[in-house]
Structures are given as C-alpha cells and as structure tokens.
Amino acid sequence: MKGYKIGGLMIGFLVLFLVSCTEKSKKEAKLLKTISEIREEYAPDKRTALFDVHVFTDTEKYILKGESNLPEAIGKLRATLKAENITYTDAIEILPSKELGKKTWAVVNISVANLRSKPKHSAELATQATLGTPVKVFKKDDDWYYIQTPDKYLSWVDAGGIVLMDKSQAENWKNKNKLIYTETAGYSYQDAKEGQRVSDLVAGDILEMIGETEEFFEVQYPDGRKAFVSKEESEPYESWLEKLDPSQESLVATSKTLMGVPYLWGGTSTKGMDCSGFTKTIFFLNGMIIPRDASQQVHTGKAVDSVKNFDNLQKGDLLFFGRKATDSTAEKVVHVGMWIGNNEFIHASEMVRISSMDKNADNYDEFNHDRYLRSKRILKENDDALISLVKDPVFKD
User: Taking residues 358-362, what's their average pLDDT?
Assistant: First the structure.
C-alpha cells in the first residue's frame, strides 16, 4: 500500500511536470512568434532597420536582450507582451546608445567614406557616403560608429570619416550655404589657385560655402578645414537645385560621364561603383536619392516590362537581372543597368560600359539578355522610397 501511494505521487508529479512544461512551451512559442511578427512588420529589411531582439531563459523567467533603432517597434512589442500576460526581464536597448550622449548626428568629412558591414577595415564594403552627407549615429564600437544614411542604409564608419554633432549643430550645418562639386573628380586647394591640395573631391560632394573669388569658391569642411574649389568644377547648391529638371536625356548624359569608372563592390562614388551604386549615383547627380541595392531598387517605381519587349522602355528606365522564381526558389535580383535607347543599356560590369540587347550588335550582352527579369521606371514617379532633393531638405533646410 505504501509503495502504491508513492507510485501515485510520482505519477502525479510527472503529470504536473509535463503540464507545466507544455504551458511553458506554449508561452515561449507565443513570445517568439510575437517577436518574429513585429520584426517582419517593422524591420523586414535588416539593411535599413535594426530589430535585433532575442529570448533567453533562466529557471524562473524570460529575459529579452537586444537592440533596435525603432522605438515604435519596441513599444508595440512591450504592449503586446503585456496584453498576453507574458512576464519577462526587459534588457532591450533603444538606440541611439546612451554612450553617445547628445552626439547622435554626424556629417561625412572626407570625399568618400567607406561604410562597412562590421566595425573593422577588413569587413565587407557595404556602401559609401560622399562628403557632406548627414547621417544618424546609433552606437559606437572603439573607433567605429554605427550610422544610417539618408536612404536608411545601416553600416559602420571609422571615426576619421565623419564629424560628430548634436542635434543643434546638425541643424546649424544644414542651414549654411552650400556648394556641390559637379566634376567627376578633382581637388580642393589651400589658396585661390591650384597649389597645395587640401583633399580630393568627387561628383556630388557638398561643402559649406563661406566666400568666393573671381575663379574659386571658398569652402569649409565639417571639421573646420578651409579650402578653395574651382568655380568651373562646382556650383552653389541652391542654384544647382533650382536648375534641376531631371529628364531622360539628363540621366543618359550623366551616365556617360562615368564611362570606364572601375567596378567596386560596395562603391557608390566616382572612385569606383558596383551596379546599383552606379544607378544610384546617376540619379543622385540628377537630384534624386534612390535605394542602395538592386534588390531594393526593383521594388520602386512603375513596372514597364517583364517579357523582353524592349520597345516599351524609355531612356532612364532601370533593367534588372538575376534568377527567375521557380516552384522551389524565389526570384533573386543580382544586377541592374539603365536603358539609354537604341537597344542599349549602360551598367557597371567590370567597369562602367554600354551593352546591347541587339543580337547583331558588336556589344551584344548575351549573358545579361538571358538573365533579364524586368524593367522599372522611377523618373518622376511618386514613391516613398524615392527622395527628391528639391522637395526634401536632406542637405539644406
């Protein structure tokens, strides 16, 4: 009899234990599902939004650790878990990091800043940002800063590439008179003559303008360095904006000034560019900021073709290439070029070059013809992912 009671107690304990584990598993599954759903809603593309939240457990409670630059997403997560009666220890940091103090803004201080996927020089070149680009700063790791560019791209930059600012300093910088460098590449100088160089410059660089002589503009860098830039190679930013009227012809003309520029994975400047960096640069020099990568650019604008009916294309349309979707695999966009008419498109492939869709042409590109996916028109299209520098004061209020 005694042994039977003990067995009953053991069975009862086992049932209670299994029920407890089942309830805990259900709660944990709900917790993980909630995090996943909020990540999918607010940060579907980790290149442009950070929602890095993970669940840990000890013997008594759940611990949520991680970080995000999306206060609204963390707010929804907390509210949802509260409504579902899920108790946890909250160890989530909302960026910018408190370590930065008020210095949560910055301006690129060199002709081209190389932005990395991780905080080290040996990491993949994710993208670039040109001189004068204002960025948000989220956290610091030794001499590296995690930043977000105006197209929302997230990456790391070393301390030498930017000048940190607080909100007031950043707003003050935006209110200054500006100059935009318009030549493919060149230099600024110490004096109002082409003598000692201060730094190199590339097309699209933006500097504060503080004076002028007959042949030069006097400028100031974000770190306070002063220099002179030839008037033949630059223009007051306001005048440049006022004259902007991006057209099919202006896009083609800009693209051809970049002929022969070498291919550089992660490059978005005239020092070197990848395929989407090239299309991004073309549109930027015509007053538009478009998404960074080909797989992002393909989701903008208006669809114009997907069956190789190139007669439907207009100059300036973007052509996308890659792997078509199958029953078991999703479509994968890996390359982009721009239509320039006459059955030709211009793209960065080994270098910036012109290729043809005409099988009889000397520059026929069979490889890209065969992996063509679709074309999109983004010139003068309304799209939240397309930023007009005329309408949106990215560089100047």
Answer: 97
What's residue 26's pLDDT?
80
- Can 121 be counted among the known catalytic residues? no
Q: Is residue 109 pLDDT above 70, yes or no?
A: yes
**Is there a contact between 69 and 148 (Cβ–Cβ < 8 Å)?**
yes
Q: Which residues, including other chains, have CB under 8 Å from residue 321's CB and lie 6 or more apart?
A: 333, 334, 335, 336, 337, 368, 371, 372, 373
CA atoms within 13 A on the CB side of 165: 23
**Bridge pairing between strands 134-141 and 144-148:** antiparallel
The mean pLDDT value for 115-121 works out to 98
**What DSSP string runs through 342-365?**
TTEEEEEESEEEEEES-TTSTTB-
Compute and round to an integer the Cα radius of gyration of the chain. Answer: 27
Q: What is the pTM of this model?
A: 0.91
Q: Which three-class secondary structure state does DSSP give residue 341?
A: strand
For every residue of 49-83, DSSP letters joined together read --EEEEEEE-SS-EEEEEEES-HHHHHHHHHHHHH
Render pLDDT for 141-163 as a digit per residue (tens, 0 to 9).
999 999 999 999 999 999 999 99
Provide the residue type at 89 as one letter.
Answer: T
Task: Give residues with Cβ within 8 angstroms of 368, minimum separation 6.
Answer: 321, 335, 337, 347, 349, 355
Q: If we measure between CA atoms, which residue out of 207, 205, 378, 359 comes closest to residue 276?
A: 378
Question: Residue 27: which pLDDT band, with cuts at 50, 70 and 90?
Answer: confident
Which residue in 21, 121, 335, 369 is the catalytic one? 335
Evaluated on CA atoms 151, 352, 117, 333, the torsion sign reads positive
Query: Which is the catalytic residue, given 21, 54, 275, 299?
Result: 275
Q: Choosing from 54, 121, 299, 347, which is the catalytic residue?
A: 347
Separation of CA 252 from chain center: 24
* φ, ψ of residue 193 in degrees (nearest 5): -165, 160
Measured distance CA(113)–CA(157) in Å, rounded: 7
Residue 347 designated active-site: yes
Active site residue 335: yes
The amino acid that residue 83 corresponds to is A
